[in-house]
Amino acid sequence: MSRPQKCRRVEFMPGVTYFKPAGVPLRDLEEVCMSIEEAEALRLKDLEGMEQEQGAEKMNISRPTFQRILASARQKIADAILNGKAIKIEGGNFQLIWRRFRCNHGHEWELDNPVSVIPERCPKCRRAGVQPVQAAGNRRGPNSGTMYGRKKEPGEQTMDAGIQGREGSADGA
Ligand SMILES: [Zn+2]
């Protein structure tokens, strides 16, 4: 198949990219590697609740391709959870795009059409210093809302109990 691949668009980079089962030393673990676009398909379909058609459109790919990426992502998660493997999220073949921005002076705005280049100046105050704001939708994720100083919800802690980042205390286990 030499058909040129459509550029897969991704609006969300996961804040946590490594998950391991509690109580098992890293060296004894098998690892499944999930690509960034697999994580994005999962986010659109399973977190945002989009139809496949809609998710495919967001990522600028065909529906069968979206379905294939999604199926692969779910398969990897099932494999990791049921067979006790670690999950690493990295790499892939995609273009990161943004829809929402914020300037250093507190203005925030959203574009109708996402872009892959960060605007140089704020449209409101015309000053330089613009940063992208992560796509919403991952409201339960640890990464979401960090720019707004979101508080943890009660009970949220329990989710993290068995899932520890590589950087966390899990390493020496
Ligand atoms: Zn501004």
Notes on the protein architecture:
This protein has 173 residues and is an alpha/beta fold. The protein has two domains: 9-92, Arc Repressor Mutant, subunit A (Orthogonal Bundle); 97-138. 26% of the residues lie in helices and 21% in strands. The chain has helices at 36-47, 52-59, 63-83, 157-160; strands at residues 9-10, 18-21, 31-34, 86-89, 95-96, 98-103, 108-115, 130-133, 163-164. The protein has a four-stranded mixed sheet. The protein has a three-stranded antiparallel sheet with strand order 7-6-8, with no helix packed on it. Strands 1-5 form a two-stranded parallel sheet. A hairpin with a 4-residue loop joins strand 6 and strand 7 (108-115). Helix 2 crosses helix 3. The longest helix has 21 residues, at 63-83. Zinc ion is lined by residues 103, 105, 107, 122, 124-125, 127.
Question: Short description, anyone?
Answer:
Helices cover 26% and strands 21% of the residues. With 173 residues, it is of the alpha/beta class.
Provide the helix percentage. 25-40%
Strand content: 15-25%
Which CATH architecture of the largest domain would you pick? Orthogonal Bundle
Biggest sheet: strand arrangement: 3-4-2-9
Q: Give the number of helices.
A: 4
**How many domains comprise the coordinates?**
2
Layout of SSEs?
Layout (H helix, E strand, L loop, with lengths): L8 E2 L7 E4 L9 E4 L1 H12 L4 H8 L3 H21 L2 E4 L5 E2 L1 E6 L4 E8 L14 E4 L23 H4 L2 E2 L9
Parallel strand pairs: 1-5, 3-4
Antiparallel strand pairs: 2-4, 2-9, 6-7, 6-8
